[in-house]
Amino acid sequence: MSSLPPQPLSPLDGRYFAAVGELADYLSEAGLNRARVEVEVEWLLTLTDRSLFGTAPLPETDKEQLRALYRDFGQVEIDWLAEKEAVTRHDVKAVEYLVRDRLSSLGLEAVAELTHFACTSEDINSASYALTVQRAITTVWLPKLRAVIDALRGLAQQHRDAAMLARTHGQPATPTTMGKEIAVFVWRLERVAAQVAASEYLAKFSGATGTWSAHLAADPDVDWPALTRTFIEGLGIGFNPLTTQIESHDWQVELYDRVRHAGGILHNLATDVWTYISLGYFSQIPVAGATGSSTMPHKINPIRFENAEANLEIAGGLLTTLAATLVTSRLQRDLTDSTTQRNIGVALGHSLLALDNLQRGLGEISLAQPVLDADLDANWEVLAEAIQTVVRAEIAAGRSQITDPYALLKELTRGRRVGGAQLAEFVGGLDIGDAAKQRLLALTPATYVGLASQLVDEL
Q1: What Pfam families does this protein's entry cite (predicted)?
Q2: Which of 7, 149, 333, 453 is the most exposed, having the fewest neighbouring CB atoms within 10 Å of its CB?
Q3: Are 451 and 417 in contact (CB under 8 A)?
């Protein structure tokens, strides 16, 4: 059998790239290398701006030409780095050589030795990962999560008063409204979104074992911790002053746990909406030209929610692995984090794909209120809770001699369907005050929703 032409191995880079491609700007190998070039260039400019080691600040034109190396980073630089890394067998060293090459072309060889000055690779990497993950989360992933939350908020408000039968343990239970049930997910997701938005993105810049030893050897009179803190914070990320060779990755563990938590809530949403569709509570809006089944023409499958469910499970597994692996490094450094971090984009990619499917799916469903109404009308026994609670209140107030209201209602309703007329007859014969009796007789499953509608307004 002949070999295929080169193909993407991951569906994220093939079938689903249109939905997740924005992440590649930050979390691909090229995105990481662009950030590495940015850190190398800005560190060199920081040193020359302070006139260290006999240098002087570069002219603004030279600075802008150097910054163009990462601002205009593209295929030429990608190919250059690939060719160089094939020789160096070291990705960060290849980036250092790229910056040196740019300095040479600009006639700035005099400051070339300040490229990668006193840095270990992990100084560059920690800053680069902090930058790329921060940008991926804040410009791509978090806006997509908020788009899903906004879609849910719109549905919650739209269906604020849409009474429906609740199903605790899958069984008929005290009615609620569809709006309130959706609002629960909005409330949950808003909390996690706020936690993600408040995440720290930390880097270290303290040398081979986190002690600034080489820096002090070069110039013991410079306050290197203060200088490197200012440099890192100037990039828009946080500074970790106490590390081994690597930044400890705790911020990543925290972030990926939060993203995984959001994914768990979204998974719950996907399975609930799928179930509501299967119950007929939501009908699916046909998409022109789409096929639900290769043999059953009538079908509209809830594929958006099934796709989201599967991708959230994949993302959750990867995020759990990232968090579990990155929290540990043997002694002052091992390389397990290097391979692990290269899968950050894969984990967030599956999560983003799930968000995209949920956003699309939520726009392709329509509430079938007649189905909700029929379900409520077929389950008058759910009013047993209201009746026995009112009877208890009447007993406490001295207006009833009933001895065990719960048992009384259990005998009438447990495991049985009870119609409205039968329940009204039962209430009419209860030993309770007239006001309570009239209140119960006025109840229907559709009106027994408590504060469900008003709870949507909590959003």
Answers
A1: ASL_C, Lyase_1
A2: 7
A3: no
pLDDT, tens only, 33-42: 999 999 999 9
Q: Known catalytic residue: 159? A: no
User: Mean of the pLDDT values across residues 202-211?
Assistant: 97
Helix (H, G, I), strand (E, B) or coil at 367: strand
pLDDT tens per residue, range 301-343: 889 999 999 999 999 999 999 999 999 999 999 888 889 999 9
Tokens of residue 26, six digits: 């930050």
Q: How many Å apart are CA 280 and CA 315, to the nearest integer? A: 29
Q: Is 169 known to be catalytic?
A: yes
Q: What is the mean pLDDT of residues 283-291?
A: 70
The Cα–Cα gap between 323 and 260 comes to 10
With cut-offs at 50, 70 and 90, classify the pLDDT of residue 413: confident
362 and 151 Cβ atoms separated by less than 8 Å: yes
Give the DSSP letter of residue 288.
T
Task: Give the pLDDT confidence of 334-370 residue by residue, as tens digits.
Answer: 888 889 999 999 999 999 999 999 999 999 999 999 9
Distance in angstroms (rounded) separating the CA atoms of residues 142 and 73: 25
Distances (CA, A) of 170 to 132, 165, 166, 167, 173: 44, 11, 8, 5, 9
Residue 377's φ and ψ, nearest 5 degrees, are: -70, -20
User: Are the beta carbons of 383 and 172 closer than 8 angstroms?
Assistant: no
Q: Which among 2, 3, 169, 366 is annotated as catalytic?
A: 169
3-state secondary structure of 168: strand
- β-pairing, 163-168 vs 171-177, is antiparallel
- CB of 133 within 8 A of CB of 252? yes
Direct distance between the N- and C-terminal alpha carbons of the chain, in angstroms, rounded to an integer: 59
Sign of the CA dihedral running 272, 276, 277, 282: negative
Beta strands 238-239 and 202-203 are: parallel
Amino acid present at 290: A
Instruction: Quote the distance between the C-alpha of residue 190 and its chain's center.
Output: 11
Cα–Cα distance for residue pair 123/119, rounded to 1 Å: 6
Identity of the residue numbered 386: A
H-type alpha helices, 280-399: 303-326, 336-341, 344-362, 369-377, 384-396
C-alpha triplet 14, 271, 448: angle, nearest 5° = 150
Identify the band that residue 5 occupies on the pLDDT scale cut at 50, 70 and 90: confident
The structural domains of the chain, ordered by start, are 21-119 (1.10.275.10), 122-285+299-368 (1.20.200.10), 379-456 (1.10.40.30)
